[in-house]
């Protein structure tokens, strides 16, 4: 066993930790119900420490203090979500404890873990037990106790992890939300995965590559958690560069507590990062600018995330701002090509699937962004397509409720053209809106016509259940086909044709003049033709069209108008 850890080894331990949590992020997502059931803790923690790993790989390893400082700074700027910000604070305190150290032993490691806990508890405004804070605190306490007997880093870290698992198992009894969902705390689990990755590198074990999907793991019952339990809808994270290094953030903390909860603020000499759940993210951002210059921000609607999870759909983050930041840091900061206006109107649409993309292209869309459920584009992605569109006025069709806010943030960013975001929530709505655009009509006339057009569209979708759950009174079994009408659960069935028949008999389809069926990437031509026949028989007064959408997740998307 090694008696000490030097800078190079610490860097490898942290890089290994990033690989470890990346390999288990989906499992951790499936445990995420507190403070809100939005299923992204694993992704957030993985991306947070992944930012640090990228930075550590770029820089030659120095002393332990230098490596820890690099890690802490990268974590602060890359922190995503509540768990990511707390993780950055844990390592911020760690870095302060080893600032002057060239190497560390087990005693130093224990002290550093304790410093991290102190930093996290100090920054979290309303610490809750049964969380990552509890797990990290009890892990650090055991590390200190062990270090008094044996200062070998491996022994100390192993003891911290062992006690951490005891604490993790008890989180289900400490937090009523976890108890209701039947899972342990996701953030605590992620923290232990990171520590285990560090220990594995210390022992010379190979880095993990992918998560073993065949392993039986616990999952949260997201359907047992009511949307009403989400008091504050928007998960808001942003970075502010300080105008004064010695700025006092106490008044700002008090203000944020008055408009939200789950508040965590991490800072260094140059910047501070805020995580807060609030219903008024704009107010939080505006107030922050009294203390410095706003650099980056991300806002996610946790209610829609929770709804999708309860419906059996996998949800990831709604933007990719951290990836954009990484691109900029890697020297890809050249301004995207901006097309000069050559016509009055242009259209940018979001969709997933080659068939759907072809439909939008055929209808005259200038830019098409691949995205939708599980892969929502960022504001930057949308802005790039807007910049490339040679028009004075660019209509943006998000075609997904989770993308509307990201699209709206493009409005003030456009410099030489006007951006109009039409709040389409489905692909069929977007197609209907595009069909109604008149290149010779006035702006307001087009907005009114396109809005009226997509408002007439009733959208239904068929997907599948990834697990057993109970949702809106429906007992859902893994493998069931799910029919959604306007994103609300319409019904379930083990027989797809039977479910299609029920959907065809529903009022929107029975009253429709036009029905379009877009079949997905997992549907054969034969099955699609059978779906067409079902709708033609059930809806004799409607013109029914069948198109290959090629979309993932949904077997069928059906529009009726």
Protein described:
With 561 residues, the chain is an alpha+beta fold. The chain folds into four domains: 208 residues, Serine Threonine Protein Phosphatase 5, Tetratricopeptide repeat (Alpha Horseshoe); 81 residues, 2-Layer Sandwich (Alpha-Beta Plaits), CATH 3.30.70; 88 residues, Phosphotransferase system, mannose-type IIA component (Rossmann fold, 3-Layer(aba) Sandwich), CATH 3.40.50.510; 103 residues, 2-Layer Sandwich (Hypothetical Protein Tm841, Chain: A,domain 3). Helix content is 47%, strand content 19%. It contains 21 helices and 18 strands. The strands form five sheets. The protein has a six-stranded mixed beta sheet with strand order 15-14-11-18-16-17, sandwiched between helices. The radius of gyration is 26 Å and the shape is globular. The relative contact order is 0.08. About 6% of the residues have low confidence. Pfam families: Dak2 (PF02734), FakA-like_C (PF13684), FakA-like_M (PF21645). This is DAK2 domain-containing protein. It comes from Pseudoflavonifractor hominis.
How many DSSP helices?
Answer: 21
Summed over residues and divided by their number, the pLDDT gives a mean of: 84
Overall body shape: globular
Strand content: 15-25%
| E-strand count | 18
Total number of distinct structural domains: 4
CATH topology of the largest domain: Serine Threonine Protein Phosphatase 5, Tetratricopeptide repeat
Low-confidence stretches: 212-217, 220-228, 312-321, 331-336
CATH superfamily of the largest domain: DhaL domain
Roughly how many Å apart are the termini? 71 Å
The rounded Rg comes to 26 Å
Helical/strand content category = alpha+beta
CATH architecture of the largest domain: Alpha Horseshoe
Query: Could you estimate the helical fraction of the residues in percent?
Result: 40-55%
Strand order of the largest sheet: 15-14-11-18-16-17
Q: In the CATH hierarchy, what is the class of the largest domain?
A: Mainly Alpha
**Tell me about the biggest sheet?**
6 strands, mixed
């Amino acid at each position: 066993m090694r008696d000490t850890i030097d800078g190079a080894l610490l860097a490898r331990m942290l890089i290994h930790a990033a690989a470890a949590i990346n390999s288990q992020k989906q499992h951790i997502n499936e445990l995420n119900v507190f403070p809100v059931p939005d299923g992204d803790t694993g992704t957030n923690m993985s991306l947070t420490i992944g930012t640090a790993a990228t930075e550590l790989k770029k820089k030659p390893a120095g002393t332990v203090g230098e490596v820890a400082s690099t890690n802490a700074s990268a974590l602060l700027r890359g922190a995503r979500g509540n768990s990511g910000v707390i993780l950055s604070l844990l390592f911020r305190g760690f870095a302060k404890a080893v600032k002057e150290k060239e190497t560390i032993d087990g005693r130093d490691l224990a002290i550093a873990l304790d410093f991290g806990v102190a930093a996290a508890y100090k920054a979290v405004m309303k610490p809750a037990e049964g969380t990552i804070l509890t797990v990290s605190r009890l892990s650090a306490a055991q590390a200190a106790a062990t270090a008094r007997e044996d200062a070998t880093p491996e022994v100390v870290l192993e003891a911290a992890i062992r006690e951490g698992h005891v604490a993790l198992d008890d989180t289900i009894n400490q937090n009523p939300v976890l108890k209701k969902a039947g899972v342990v705390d996701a953030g605590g689990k992620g923290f232990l995965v990171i520590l285990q990755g560090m220990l594995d590198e210390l022992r010379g074990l190979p880095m993990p590559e992918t998560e073993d999907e065949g392993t039986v793991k616990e999952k949260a019952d997201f359907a047992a958690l009511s949307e009403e339990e989400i008091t504050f809808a928007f998960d808001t994270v942003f970075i502010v560069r300080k105008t004064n290094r010695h700025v006092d953030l106490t008044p700002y903390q008090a203000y944020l507590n008055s408009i939200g909860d789950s508040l965590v603020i991490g800072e260094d000499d140059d910047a501070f990062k805020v995580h807060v759940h609030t219903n008024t993210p704009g107010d939080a951002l505006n107030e922050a600018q009294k203390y410095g210059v706003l650099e980056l921000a991300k806002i996610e609607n946790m209610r829609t995330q929770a709804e999708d999870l309860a419906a059996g759909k996998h949800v990831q983050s709604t933007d990719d701002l951290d990836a954009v930041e990484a691109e900029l840091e890697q020297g890809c900061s050249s301004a995207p090509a901006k097309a000069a206006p050559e016509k009055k109107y242009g259209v940018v649409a979001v969709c997933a699937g080659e068939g759907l993309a072809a439909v939008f292209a055929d209808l005259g869309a200038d830019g098409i962004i691949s995205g939708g459920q599980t892969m929502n584009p960022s504001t930057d992605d949308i802005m790039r397509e807007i910049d490339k569109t040679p028009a004075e006025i660019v209509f943006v069709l998000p075609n997904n409720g989770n993308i509307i806010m990201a699209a709206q943030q493009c409005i003030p960013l456009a410099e030489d053209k006007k951006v109009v975001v039409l709040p389409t929530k489905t692909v069929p709505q977007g197609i209907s809106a595009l069909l109604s655009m008149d290149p010779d009509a006035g702006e307001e006339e087009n907005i009114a016509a396109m809005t009226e057009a997509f408002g007439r569209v009733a959208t239904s979708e068929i997907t599948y259940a990834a697990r057993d759950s109970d949702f809106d009174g429906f007992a859902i079994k893994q493998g069931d086909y799910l029919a959604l009408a306007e994103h609300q659960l319409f019904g379930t069935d083990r027989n797809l044709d039977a479910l299609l028949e029920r959907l065809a008999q529903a009022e929107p389809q029975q009253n429709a003049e036009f029905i379009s069926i877009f079949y997905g990437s997992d549907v054969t031509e034969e099955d699609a033709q059978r779906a067409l026949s079902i709708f033609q028989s059930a809806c004799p007064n409607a013109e029914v069209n069948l198109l290959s959408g090629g979309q993932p997740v949904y077997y069928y998307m059906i529009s009726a108008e």
